[in-house]
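hi! just following up on the protien thing from before. the input was this:
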Amino acid sequence: MAEAFPALGADHERFIAAQHVFFVATSPLAADGFVNLSPKGLGTFAVLDATTVAYLDLTGSGVETIAHLRENGRIVIMFCAFEGPPKIVRLYGRGEVLTPESPDFAGLRPRFPDLPGVRSIIRVRVSRVAESCGYGVPRFVYEGERTQLPAWSERKGPDGVRQYQAQKNRTALGGLPGLPGDD
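and the predicted 3d structure came back as:
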């Protein structure tokens, strides 16, 4: 039986803290635009308060989430239990992109692991929390985090990551602007 709440409760926070992966979905306004769904992990999620969450956004090959949030702010984050009792929690809200130059970035950065290749912090004002059974979610056993993304960023170094972002993260699929650059 699905239930909806206006804010996160203590049970939601405990459930979220126990999950190793979460999924982020956004969409552009254009009817022919690409919906984006991205898995995230590496301990990069934080509950800031009952209606505000955030995650550390690491450099990747696409910049859809950033572009979509800058265009319209709509976002949903989903957690599902792969171990233990079946459960799904979705957080609906409005997201904002905090780059390292943003005034709130420095204050939030200590809430997350010290990982290389940080692109931004995505902060979400949650307006709806939906909980459902998760009976269709398969059971998996957690073995550990993958190390490839942090290792890639370490090998590139800060200058190499910035160069990669300038080449690959300036625009999203469909042409929406992603990360700003020095033009």
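The mean pLDDT is 96.
Helices lie at 10-18, 64-71, 105-108, 148-168.
cheers
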